[in-house]
Amino acid sequence: MSASVDFSDEQLALLAQEYPRFSDDEMRRRRLAVEEAMAAHEVDHLLVHGIGGRGGAVGWLAQWVVTNEAHLVVSPGEQDALFVQYFNHVPLARHLARDAQVEWGGASTVNSSIEELRRRGATARRVGVMGPLPLSYARALEKEFGLLVDLSALYGALRLEKSPEELRWFELGARLGDRAIAALRDQIAPGLNERDLGAIVEASYLPYGGVNALHYFAVNPMSDPTYCVPRQHPSTRVLRVGDVITTEITANFFEYGGQVLRTFVVGEDLDESYRRLHDVADAAFDAIAARLVPGAHARELVEASGVIEDNGFTTYDDLVHGYGGGYLAPVLGSRSRPNEPIPNFVLRENMMLVVQPNVVTPDHRRGVQTGECLVVTAQGPRRLHTAPRGVHRVG
User: Is the pTM of this model over 0.90?
Assistant: First the structure.
């Protein structure tokens, strides 16, 4: 298998644009959803906080992928105001932001936002906030406008069901992750280390405008493993024949990506213990995925994973989580490693979930990883990824 992953004509058209943009209809859909939520909570003005590449609703509403810090002030009937840090980030923000007046956030982004809210006539207990607002910012706002209305959880609810246009972008991001899996299959070899693996991953999608969201690895000798789940920071551990590599990868196209998880083995086939782990992981994935239809309850997904415990294994990572716009509901653990309580959550059409059974031995020494993003449809789950499933022998 080569590291060339096919893009559709529609994806190639997005990749070819200087800076791709969502349609006017899509942006109106988002704005209407937010304004309806504001009205339902008796909020006249909304301050959206984004920071450090995790812009959340700033990017969703304004199409500015937040670099350092940004505030978006939203008021029905008025143009949005976008305050950006740093000063030298303002020119690009003005080029990219949709339907917003863009200015530097000044010496204090929150003070600039307070001045804008004053100008708009904001009154006590009618200001909402969305995003991970620092405590000092919240206190400054409440000193001026009284108790704030926190709409952050509501933003997560708004992102649960994806529009067809959003799914096209997410699928493109998933394809970049597929390139990373293909590149690892081609290039993993004894003598490389975990840092090298990260370099292989990022080099596979950087030429297409992809950016790293995460690439986690765990490298273990199959004969004497010690670590059952991919690690968030790479080590200098050198790959050897007989190693098992588990990985979790998300590449983003702007803020849109999939998530793909696979297991590799270097120079040998899996031994019986690892083969059994992966067979159970595949069975759990299939059982959970079969229930990704509208109307299914979160409880059914956990019950479907019972094949893990029935075979004497457990999990370490989350079993299932919503995705696309955040780490979304439902976040579920397995029967033996639960996230209590199981939420009263019912799947709906066009929700996107990552099914990722990280099946491990009870002593947490051996573990495998498999899974990917799936979309809930009436016909069953739709794959966003094309990376082949199963264990990949490399090197």
Answer: yes
